[in-house]
Write a structure and sequence with these properties.
38% of the residues lie in helices and 21% in strands. It is of the alpha/beta class and 484 residues long. Bound molecules: NADPH dihydro-nicotinamide-adenine-dinucleotide phosphate.
Amino acid sequence: MKFQPKASHFINGEYVEDTNGAPIDVIYPATGEVIARLHSATPEIVNQALNSAKSAQAKWEAMSGTERGRVLRRAADIMRERNYDLSVLETHDTGKPLQETLVADATSGADALEYFGGLAASLTGEHIPLGGGDFVYTIREALGVCVGIGAWNYPTQIACWKGAPALACGNTMVFKPSETTPLSALQVAEILIEAGAPKGVYNVVQGYGDVGASLVTDPRVAKVSLTGSVPTGRKVYAAAADGMKHVTMELGGKSPMIVFDDADVENAVSGAILGNFYSSGQVCSNGTRVFVQKGIKEQFLARLSERLATAKIGDPLDEEVNFGPMVSENQMNIALGYIEKGRAEGARLVYGGERIDGDGFYMQPTVFADVTDDMTIAREEIFGPVMSVLDFDTEEEVMARANDTEFGLAAGVFTNDLTRAHRIVAGFEAGTCYINTYNLAPVEAPFGGSKMSGVGRENSKLAINHFSEMKTVYVSMNDVEAPY
Ligand code: NDP
């Protein structure tokens, strides 16, 4: 098979296989062809991975931040050198066009390794002077063994967004990719070893949800970072709470994008395209509820349709292609099911709406107009290329409607009115907001959600606080006064 790895799991610096685990067929979404067969981790494999992470941790943490950072930065360099091959692999795993994977997957993983590698040497506590000469100092310590559990849309990026800050802080990691896209995390693990990471610092085990669940509840684990849906997040958060473990939850969304009459329409259409159809719409922060002020609605829809007609749908390995298949047949069917609901509930289909014939899991980019707040397509996360356009009249009205959702991952506004832009983002109930752009997630900026969309933040200096904790040391320079 074309992309068969040496073995399913990567533990203690080596590939490990156990064919007793349930088979996982990796399917190339563009053709339906099986490109690799892996096996889900058995309890024995999970145990090996956790033991490996546990025994490597103290030594890794004892290395200086400079040394740990050097390993991460070397890994970033290797990833960049191999960007083309890693991108081809990611395209086969996910179906995302090579045009995207070349610039958004291994490269953003490398950014995270480089950024957190750079921070590793400067992670410190602080000195807090008290009265009378006493003082407190704090020591920033690693949490221990961290578990990362990934979704299938950005497998390389997620493996690095979790691994890089965890390792920078001196933790070790057991990472479980989604079983739909298990291949690239193995490459990340291999590259880290090549870059000089000690064995056991970053381990990968494959598996379905049950493997993730067994990792979350294991007493050797100090922290769980999940990227996934809200229902899974709820389960994982609850299971982690039992052991009082630290959590980061990067979950789903139904984010609003508001386009005012005074906006630059071309930019707003670009933002709506990026925020709904990049990666065939399989992006958690997508602005899938596009509120367009009535004055420019028809102009907006006309330009959107014209530009969608120029999308190049096809073989994702062709670098001209910019719209690929869905990750799996199942995910395609879910999105097509929502399109049926949209039609049945009275939304007006203005673009797309159909599956594209062939062996691959292709569907058209789809736009509904005249969507109302109560329709299923305006309320539930679709995680596919389905945009809902809703009309609005006033700022006050749209603000309330934009926030009327259980989710709070992202939100965006397009307007040329400076004060209104800032007023709107101040009112958004969302973790990641955009003014006159959409869906950018540089490693320097915090990323994460409010409300049901998550807990904690990835990227930026803030991620350090989610992968370390402070020990407080009170130092007395005086005699101890006791009451008796
Ligand atoms: P799922 O929630 O189905 O799965 C996420 C991961 O959790 C998978 O690896 C899954 O394994 C695992 N898992 C499932 N059940 C359990 C359990 N009980 N305990 C532990 N682990 C478990 O999400 P998808 O993979 O379908 O990804 C799509 C979702 O991810 C969308 O909701 C999207 O919004 C969200 N997402 C959020 C992002 C963010 O940063 N906020 C970014 C990207 C996606 P398995 O797949 O084998 O079942």
